[in-house]
C-alpha cells in the first residue's frame, strides 16, 4: 500500500513540470509537504473536460465513490489505494478507471516493513535523480444532500519491484512521463491503459531510512527524510 508520501515542489513548479494550469488560478497549497496523509487535500493533475488540456486541482486523498449515499458510508473503509489487480472489477474503481484517471505529483513516498513488531523503521523511496514524478491515480466527484461537491482521489498500487519487495509486497504505480497523456485521456474508454499498472524499475529508484517521526501526521518538514543520512540500497534494507 501507500499511506504516506511527500513533495518538495510548490504550485508553480508542479504546474510547469506537468504543463498543467491551476484551477482556480489562485489554487491554495503549501510550498512543500513532507508528510502527506490521507483525508488531506492535495494537488492532482487531470484532463479538462472543456479544453482537453491538463489542469491541476486540489482533491481529498481517500476516494469517495460517486454513488455514495452518505459520507459515513465510507468511514472505516480504505479507499486511499486502488489495487491494480481489481481495478476493472471493483465497483469503487471500475468507473473512475474508465473516465477519471489522474496524475498525483510526488517527490518521494514512505513505507514501513510489512513484517516485524513495532516500532518499525520507515523508509523513504524516490527516483534516483530526486526529481518530481507522478503516481497513477483515480479521481471521483461526490455530491452531498446540500448540493456541495467533494472531489477525491486514490493512488493505484501494484506488486512490489525487487527494491520495494525487501520492505513491502506492494508499491504505488509510478508512471513514466511518456505515458502521461495516455493515462489522462478521457476519450479513451475502450483500450484502457491497464498495461501501465506495473512495477517501476528498481534501478531507477533509491531508498534510505526516514525519520521515525513521520508516523505522526503532525510532524512535517525536510527532517522527515533524514536526507543527509542516505545509505547504500543494500545496506539500508533488511535482507
TrEMBL record:
Its EC number is 3.4.-.-. The keyword Phosphoprotein does not apply. It comes from Granulicella aggregans. InterPro entries: SRAP, SRAP-like. GO terms for biological process: protein-DNA covalent cross-linking repair; proteolysis. This is Abasic site processing protein. It is an enzyme of class 3 (hydrolase). Belongs to the SOS response-associated peptidase family. GO terms for molecular function: lyase activity; peptidase activity; single-stranded DNA binding. Keywords: Covalent protein-DNA linkage, DNA damage, DNA-binding, Hydrolase, Lyase, Protease.
Amino acid at each position: 500500500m501507500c499511506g504516506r508520501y511527500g513533495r518538495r515542489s510548490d504550485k508553480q513548479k508542479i504546474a510547469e513540470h506537468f504543463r498543467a494550469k491551476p484551477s482556480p488560478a489562485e489554487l491554495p497549497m503549501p510550498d512543500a509537504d513532507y508528510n502527506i496523509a490521507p483525508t488531506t487535500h492535495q494537488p492532482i493533475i487531470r484532463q479538462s473536460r472543456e479544453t482537453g488540456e491538463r489542469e491541476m486541482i486540489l482533491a481529498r486523498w481517500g476516494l469517495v465513490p460517486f454513488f455514495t449515499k452518505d459520507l459515513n458510508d465510507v468511514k472505516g473503509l480504505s479507499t486511499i489505494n486502488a489495487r491494480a489487480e481489481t481495478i476493472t472489477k471493483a465497483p469503487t474503481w471500475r468507473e473512475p478507471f474508465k473516465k477519471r484517471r489522474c496524475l498525483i505529483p510526488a517527490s518521494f513516498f514512505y513505507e514501513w516493513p510489512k513484517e516485524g513488531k513495532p516500532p518499525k523503521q520507515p523508509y523513504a523511496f524516490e527516483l534516483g535523480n530526486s526529481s518530481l514524478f507522478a503516481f497513477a491515480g483515480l479521481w471521483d466527484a461526490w455530491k452531498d444532500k446540500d448540493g456541495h461537491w467533494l472531489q477525491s482521489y486514490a493512488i493505484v498500487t501494484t506488486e512490489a519491484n525487487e527494491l520495494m519487495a525487501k520492505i513491502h509486497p506492494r508499491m504505488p504505480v509510478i508512471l513514466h512521463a511518456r505515458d502521461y497523456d495516455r493515462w489522462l485521456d478521457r476519450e479513451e474508454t475502450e483500450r484502457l491503459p491497464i498495461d501501465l499498472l506495473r512495477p517501476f524499475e528498481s534501478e531507477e529508484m533509491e531508498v534510505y531510512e526516514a525519520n521515525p517521526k513521520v508516523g505522526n501526521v503532525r510532524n512535517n518538514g525536510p527532517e522527515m527524510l533524514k536526507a543527509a543520512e542516505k545509505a547504500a540500497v543494500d545496506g539500508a534494507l533488511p535482507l
